[in-house]
Amino acid sequence: MSYYSLEEAEFEVNLLHLQCELAKRLVIETIKVSHSNKISCIKFITSQENIIRSIEETEEQGVLYDEFPFWLSTDTADIENLVEHCKRFDGYYLVYLDLDYTPIPPFPVNIFLILLLCFIFAVILLLFCEYFLLKINELLLLTLKLSTLCLHK
Q1: pLDDT tens track of the chain, all 153 residues?
Q2: Residue 91 located in a structural domain
Q3: Residues 83 and 113 in one domain
Q4: What is the DSSP string of 118-147?
Q5: Total structural domains in the chain?
């Protein structure tokens, strides 16, 4: 998606009254689930509008509003590639997801590569074993020849 619209978000999440860590986890999981369900835009309400905010807003809501952009860019969240753009508004954020991005599945590909490497290692080990067995066989034959020569003298 290469354009941004201010249309109504497809999904809305109200983070008011949540503590910072719980709100962060909810944002991360919502983005992951929304991306997998092909939801392109999410509205995250982080604080009340300016008129009401000065009277009723708690300190925690102000922290949510200020910290929100950092949650989207941290490596620990595993969501920075899912988010295409985040637009800040008065009391909320619109997060646009990159639906063209496909996360790489961690296990099926890795298991295949591990099995392939194990197979290659086993073949190499067998080749080395065969090589050493041939060398041992040559040594035994040489020893047998030498012992026969010694016995005939």
Answers
A1: 434 444 557 889 999 888 889 999 999 999 999 998 999 999 999 986 544 444 444 555 678 888 899 898 876 667 888 999 999 998 899 999 999 988 776 556 677 788 888 889 999 988 888 888 888 888 888 888 888 877 776
A2: yes
A3: no
A4: HHHHHHHHHHHHHHHHHHHHHHHHHHHHHH
A5: 2
